[in-house]
């Protein structure tokens, strides 16, 4: 009886402890398989048609639009579906704020604005020929089906207008595209299709997002546990599920806290949240720590712990851009300088006459804050104090008290960019064009802004300056395998907590009451001192009349 | 009245005391680790150990409380001022002069008045303060959506930590007290063997000799 109780207790303790501290580095993640299987692209699998056998796609095709006409010949409704999505409209009105968003209108703190520069920027419009305001958004034959669906990898796009000779030289000498081969190769979009634009946002590889780079074309599972070729090999559309050519998971409409989870039996097809597959209690409850982790789901976005760093995989992202230094020339010609070698050995430009200076970073620890999913943009229509120290391109809110908010990771992008000093607005800069005002080729910022604003009838004081701007990019890709996720101690620690700056919560380990600690320590130390003094006095006291 | 060696700590009492000691040490070490005072354990290990030890201790206390009331042993902890002055005077002065401790254990009164008061305060103030706040803390997931939950958690953490400092202080004094009076060993042995010298009335002695001979030597 006695030994059994004595043994039971330590065993109980040990058992609970052992489960909690189970080695993290041999957790089962999806097993690697021999050779890369096909990319998993969401529900549409096991096609019943081989496009290579279609007479309509035999070619030859005189141009991309001819291919589109062939596609629409069978896919009769797709054109109308497609023309609703933002890949086509580049326009989105936020239903909450009423703000007019979309690439067509917004100003960012990278190349600033596509408006007026469509001849260049609309290379990434999923259509053919958008170079100015005359583009016909109701002509479905202008849809570019191939850029998303062809799988030969030889398809590419060039600017829709010539631009300055100083720039157009970059696009000369490309091999001709075999449109028939491309048309016959169509399938569900692969990572390389989406990545052709989304990996190169901001004017180069991973420049904009930080968590979307060409490293994701063929990533190992350590870079992205879902997309890893040696793991699940997800294509983008495995998560960005599609309904009538409209995709879930737009940055303009973020679900910061999904309270529905997987929903009814069968896969949800309306969101790209982690919870839509992993549910609302994603950690298997095999230990106390897992139970607590499931509790954290209420306040912490999955991404916060599961993407410990972004811009991994050897491709750097731009974290700082300085337009003030743009426009320097050598012998009247623009130039560029290489000054950064990234993880995969690639050289990156740290200065370009057409854009200014860039600062790169890799393996970045995100910034963290409460986020309710709602961005508030500084648009071309927003007036601000021209003397403001800095402007948030997309500010956001959130708090512990708001049930829609969670703590999210962000890339912080800092830029010095031109603005209207007189009116306190951002400006449309005319960068691309064949005329004398286009900044790229002429390097005259005053003229470029003058024309950029005048072309759209916008109020411009004529006095431009440079202002510091911040943009916030929610980090959601490059999800690491779970054994590389953050541990409790990365946040619950008095020093260097990941969440050191996050307010509105009491975090054991991070937070303390300074006075309680001081008083408590003094009392304990005082007691020890008292004991020592008491003991010393006893030790040196006469030990007379020792008791029996 | 004669001094006799009598079993005053039953097997359960001794088991209770030592497992409680072990658990409180684990709780103090892991708790101050969680608080950020040291990093002997990772946060995850400390949370796991701390919670497990707390659960086991609460379970133990449930039994101990049951035991105290069913065996009427709770009466040992009734506070009394009688003899208090003598004990206080002893620890303040007499102890330095080599005087004898003024208190004699009685069969139904095994703690001196100061001890009884200290243990009572521990049982009805400090321990409840720490286990009630501990449970509230642990069940944060269940009340996290009430208004100002984070501020309430802060208050709960404050009380919990404060009580921990107080218990640590108690432990230090408690252990030091073992060195007073007789020897450290003589204070320790009763809690191991169960037997200590107790002033017995002739009636108590007669009763024990007849009905519980194994409890008296």
From TrEMBL, chain A:
What does UniProt give as the signal peptide span? 1-23
TM spans (from-to): 515-537
Q: Which GO terms describe its molecular function?
A: oxidoreductase activity
UniProt keywords (A-Z) are: Membrane, Signal, Transmembrane, Transmembrane helix
Q: Which InterPro entries match?
A: Multihaem_cyt_sf (IPR036280), Multiheme_Cytochr_ET (IPR051829), Octahem_Cyt_c (IPR024673)
Region of interest (Disordered), residue spans: 27-51
- NCBIfam families annotated for this entry? octaheme_Shew
Record's protein name: Tetrathionate reductase family octaheme c-type cytochrome
Native species of this protein? Thiohalocapsa marina
From TrEMBL, chain B:
Can you give the residue ranges of the Cytochrome b561 bacterial/Ni-hydrogenase domain? 9-194
GO molecular function terms listed in the Swiss-Prot or TrEMBL record: electron transfer activity; heme binding; iron ion binding
Q: Name one Pfam family in it.
A: Ni_hydr_CYTB
List residues traversing the bilayer.
Answer: 15-34, 46-70, 117-140, 152-179
Q: Which UniProt keywords apply?
A: Cell membrane, Electron transport, Heme, Iron, Membrane, Metal-binding, Transmembrane, Transmembrane helix, Transport
Q: Which GO terms describe its cellular component?
A: plasma membrane
The superkingdom of the source organism is: Bacteria
- Keyword rRNA processing: yes or no? no
Compartment(s) where it occurs, according to its Swiss-Prot or TrEMBL record: Cell membrane
Looking up InterPro entries in the UniProt record yields:
Cyt_b561_bac/Ni-Hgenase (IPR011577), Di-haem_cyt_TM (IPR016174), Hydrogenase_cytochrome (IPR051542), Ni-dep_Hydgase_cyt-B (IPR000516)
**A GO term (biological process) for this protein?**
respiratory electron transport chain
- How is it placed in the membrane, per its record? Multi-pass membrane protein
Name the family. Belongs to the HupC/HyaC/HydC family.
Name used for this protein in its record: Cytochrome B
- The source organism is Thiohalocapsa marina
């Amino acid at each position: 009886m006695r030994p059994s109780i004595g043994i039971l207790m330590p065993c109980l303790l040990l058992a609970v402890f052992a489960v909690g501290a189970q080695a993290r580095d041999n957790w089962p993640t999806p097993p690697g398989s021999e050779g890369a299987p096909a990319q998993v692209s969401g529900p549409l699998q096991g096609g019943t048609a081989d496009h290579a056998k279609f007479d309509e796609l035999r070619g030859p095709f005189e141009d991309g639009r001819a291919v589109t006409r062939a596609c629409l010949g069978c896919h009769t409704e797709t054109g109308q579906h497609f023309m609703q999505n933002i890949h086509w409209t580049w326009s989105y009105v936020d239903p909450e704020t009423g703000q007019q968003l979309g690439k067509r209108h917004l100003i960012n703190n990278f190349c600033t604005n596509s408006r007026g520069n469509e001849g260049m920027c609309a290379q990434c419009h999923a259509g053919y020929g958008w170079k100015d305001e005359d583009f016909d958004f109701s002509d479905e034959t202008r849809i570019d089906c191939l850029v998303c669906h062809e799988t030969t990898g030889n398809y590419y796009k060039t600017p829709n207008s010539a631009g300055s000779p100083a720039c157009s030289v970059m696009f000369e000498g490309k091999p001709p595209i075999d449109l028939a081969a491309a048309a016959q190769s169509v399938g569900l979009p692969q990572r390389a299709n989406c990545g052709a634009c989304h990996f190169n946002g901001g004017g180069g590889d991973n420049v904009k997002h930080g968590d979307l780079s060409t490293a994701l074309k063929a990533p190992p599972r350590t870079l992205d546990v879902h997309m890893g070729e040696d793991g699940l090999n997800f294509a983008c559309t495995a998560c960005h599920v599609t309904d009538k050519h409209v995709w879930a998971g737009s940055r303009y409409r973020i679900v910061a806290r999904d309270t529905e989870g997987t929903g009814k039996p069968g896969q949800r097809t309306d969101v790209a949240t982690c919870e839509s597959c992993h549910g609302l209690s994603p950690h298997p409850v095999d230990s106390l720590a897992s139970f607590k982790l499931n509790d954290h789901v209420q306040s912490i976005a999955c991404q916060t712990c599961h993407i410990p760093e972004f811009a991994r995989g050897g491709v750097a992202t731009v974290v700082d851009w300085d337009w003030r230094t743009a426009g320097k020339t050598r012998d009247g010609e623009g130039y560029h300088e290489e000054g950064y070698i990234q993880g995969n050995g690639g050289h990156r430009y740290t200065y370009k006459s057409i854009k200014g200076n860039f600062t790169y970073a890799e393996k970045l620890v995100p910034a963290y804050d409460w986020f309710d999913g709602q961005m508030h943009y500084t648009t071309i229509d927003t007036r601000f104090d021209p003397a403001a120290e800095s402007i948030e391109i997309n500010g956001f809110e959130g708090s512990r008290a708001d049930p829609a908010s969670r703590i999210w990771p962000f890339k912080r992008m800092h830029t010095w960019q031109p603005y209207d000093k007189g009116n306190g607005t951002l400006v449309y800069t005319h960068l691309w064009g064949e005329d004398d005002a286009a900044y790229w080729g002429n390097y005259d910022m005053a003229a470029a802004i003058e024309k950029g604003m005048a072309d759209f009838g916008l109020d411009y004081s004529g006095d431009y300056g440079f202002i510091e701007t911040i943009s916030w990019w929610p980090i959601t890709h490059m999800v690491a395998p779970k054994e590389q996720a953050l541990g409790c101690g990365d946040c619950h620690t008095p020093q260097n907590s990941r969440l050191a700056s996050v307010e509105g919560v009491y975090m054991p380990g991070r937070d303390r009451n300074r006075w309680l600690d001081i008083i408590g320590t003094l009392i304990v130390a005082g007691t020890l001192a008292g004991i020592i003094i008491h003991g010393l006095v006893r030790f040196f006291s006469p030990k007379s009349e020792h008791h029996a | 009245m004669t001094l006799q060696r009598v079993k005053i700590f039953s097997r359960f009492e001794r088991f209770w005391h030592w497992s409680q000691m072990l658990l409180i040490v684990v709780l103090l070490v892991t708790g101050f680790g969680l608080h950020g005072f040291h990093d002997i354990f990772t946060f995850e290990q400390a949370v796991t150990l701390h919670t497990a030890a707390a659960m086991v201790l609460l379970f133990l206390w449930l039994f101990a409380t049951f035991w105290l009331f069913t065996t009427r042993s709770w009466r040992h902890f009734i506070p009394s001022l009688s003899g208090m002055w003598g004990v206080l005077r002893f620890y303040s002065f007499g102890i330095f002069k080599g005087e004898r401790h003024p208190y004699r254990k009685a069969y139904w009164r095994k703690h001196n008045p100061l001890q009884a008061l200290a243990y009572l305060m521990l049982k009805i103030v400090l321990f409840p303060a720490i286990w009630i706040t501990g449970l509230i803390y642990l069940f944060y997931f269940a009340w996290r959506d009430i208004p100002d939950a984070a501020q309430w958690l802060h208050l709960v953490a404050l009380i919990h930590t404060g009580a921990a400092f107080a218990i640590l202080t108690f432990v230090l004094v408690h252990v030091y007290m073992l060195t007073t009076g007789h020897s450290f060993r003589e204070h320790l042995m009763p809690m191991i063997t169960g037997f200590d010298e107790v002033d017995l009335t002739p009636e108590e002695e007669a009763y024990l000799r007849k009905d519980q001979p194994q409890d008296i030597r």
